Amino acid sequence: MSTTDLHDLTIHEAGPLLRQGQISPVELTRAFLQRIEQLDGTLQAYITVLHDRAMAAARTAEAEMLRGDYRGPMHGIPIALKDLYDTKGIRTTASSKVMADRVPTDDATTTARLEGAGAILLGKLAMHEFALGGPDPTNGFPLARNPWNLEHIPGGSSSGSGTGIAAGLCMGSLGSCTGGSIRGPAAYCSI
């Protein structure tokens, strides 16, 4: 399989390929990071890209798999998180100037569980400020764009999650949903 095709895989498809050694976590992660580099300047799905951290996690996952230490179906899968979920030592802003420099000292439970299961964190995704309201072009954070039509919004508040998955910038993402914040982007971005 060429690296140009890897972004088209689903988690369900990639898992067995990783487990059987047909693709490697390093190869898969590198393909997504390259795609982010190619497209995210236009799509603005990411607030923070964790290139070095993701590659280190991919090398760890690959070494574990080569030893036969398989953590489960998320092992080696490149994902991204809505920038609402705390990530220890990594800026978590909720797309707000008020929290622009906030660096959590602990992981959110969901973050810790995903990484504990071997998921590889590519970065933190754009969202509507504090997961409320609509897009705000004045707050200084990127406004994710709909990958199917750049003039349309991707919905929200989990806008980067919808854009990221639809454009093949991550295999999966965590969003949050109180009033359609995941369902809207999934529908707007045809996921």
TrEMBL record:
Residues 27-191 form the Amidase domain. It comes from the Bacteria. GO terms for molecular function: catalytic activity. Belongs to the amidase family. InterPro entries: Amidase, Amidase_dom, AS_sf. SUPFAM superfamilies: Amidase signature (AS) enzymes (SSF75304). This is Amidase domain-containing protein. Pfam families: Amidase. The lineage of its organism: Bacteria, Pseudomonadati, Nitrospinota/Tectimicrobiota group, Candidatus Tectimicrobiota, Candidatus Entotheonellia.
